[in-house]
Predict the structure.
Amino acid sequence: MDTTLEQPACARLVTAENQQLPVPATLRYGSTDPLAVCVDFPPEVSLDGQGVTWTFARALLAEGLSGPAGGGDVHIWPCGRDITVVEFHSPYGLALLQFPTPTLRGFLLGTYAVVGAGQEDLDQAVERGLGELFGSV
């Protein structure tokens, strides 16, 4: 059975002027892609007026809650006890967002209730990902 977990979150976007602007987001996890988590942002907070989804490894989120983690397009690190920073890199620039750590930790624990850590079927996930990449799914 496919299960999807969605949780609203209020992040704070740190601007170049060091201002913090509230940004609504939805944290999402699905059993059909058990190795990944998604952060969805609504159209009104994107540069082009389209909704934006960032997808990255669930393990990266887990690692970033306790210490600096990531490479490439997504970096995550704790900032004190109550804030976790998530940095997204794209060809258009970067976005630095602060999330309440309890929100991210609660979401991560919820994902483990859907698919336990170490219970992901890696073969199916790889096959599905390759199928999506090459358009055969």
Summary: The longest helix spans residues 101-114. The radius of gyration is 15 Å. The mean pLDDT is 90. The chain has one domain: 4-132.
